[in-house]
Amino acid sequence: MTTERYDLIVVGSGPAGEKGAAQAAYFGKRVAIIERAEHVGGAGINTGTVPSKTLREAALYFSGIRQRGLYGIDYSLKENLSVKDFMHREHVVVNKERHIIARNLQRHNIDLIHGNASLVDAHTVRVESPKGETTLAADFILIATGSSPHHPPEIPFDGDLIFDSDTILRMNRIPKTMAVVGGGVIGSEYASIFAALGVDVTLIESKERILSFIDSEIIERLRYQLSLIGLHFALGEKMTEISRHEHHVHLTLEQAGEMEFDVALISAGRQSNVQGLGLEQIGVTLGNRGLVIVNEKYQTSVPNIYAAGDVIGFPALASTSMEQARVAMVHAFDLAYKEHMSSILPLAVYTIPEMSSVGLTEDECRAKNISCLVGRAYYEHNARGQIIGDMSGMIKLVFATADKKLLGAHIIGEQASELIHIASHVMMANGSIDVFIDAVYNYPTLADTYKYAAYDGLGNLEKWNASNKKS
User: Where do the domains of the chain lie, and which CATH numbers do they carry?
Assistant: First the structure.
């Protein structure tokens, strides 16, 4: 059997795999990607980021939530909404994204090989497929196999009544009632999507609040908005038992007791896709749930093998996965290019309404004994907010009292995931809230709320200074 030689072998074609491969190929390296699935794109394109965000837009469209805010009328849900209606746009977008990725690989002359990869040694990969077995060798290997929903053994997942975040995309009907177990990003997003469609959703979370990494004030506004579309919360509740009975799911909660739902979505975290790769056999160190342990350059314990994306764990975002892979390849091939990833990492949660954050929350500053103040501005006081009908949006700036340096920004409302990058860039430049005061924004825009949040912050700083002088 002949061995095909490459400069780089990438295992996985998701966000990390694609961008890592393209980075190396851009600088003239011969690259191969091994993908075990039928389609390229990984979970980000096929079962995760893109599908869920597309379904969110479909839910907003069919529910008429935006129209209600825009026209102030009782715009009702489309009657007899089918799964086909709901999923149509998701199928279109996913297929388009797959095509874009395939074209990108072709443009960079990257060989795409379908099959199951396993590492023979630190430089050799065996690929098994229905067509037979092949062997590849390379100077460097990038593990970018992503993650899959974690399946606790006591939960009888069946993809019919009890779903995970992958199988929910293949549901065959819109249920009347739904339990969502797990108040993290995935659980909260899907809970809001189905609640917007008129499903009677109960979100069950063992902690006292959902999305504990988001600013508490933002979360309170989210909870209020979700309650308006009928979402119920069971917080501080632990599910002790789940079973299916004919056409329903029975859940037992520690405090509330037994409850019955049409379906249940279990969001119990994710685990790395490392099964069958043979990483441990060649000396690659793995952690909890199969997470690949890496250093700051994304090297594993075997120096010529790198890993990036969900397979290494937190923050497990498509955005950070891409940048991790680029940094890894720059280090591997000693390229004079992107040597590190920014420590300023914006994140977005695509609930209804969406939220986005960057930097420290007000509570985190207090915990770190950082003297800070906040400035707020509201969409309802902004012309663009009035035009688009978003009366609930808010931007919150957290800044240092000593020098007004921006420490964090937190947004809830339309376009939050886009607006956050303005704050991110200011923080990357170590800027203060004066940047927003000095800036000129198009009018009318939601971006203009930054200026008024900064004005509010300056007013709070004046009061704080005056109070300190008196004392």
Answer: 3-149+271-332 (3.50.50.60), 162-268 (3.50.50.60), 353-470 (3.30.390.30)
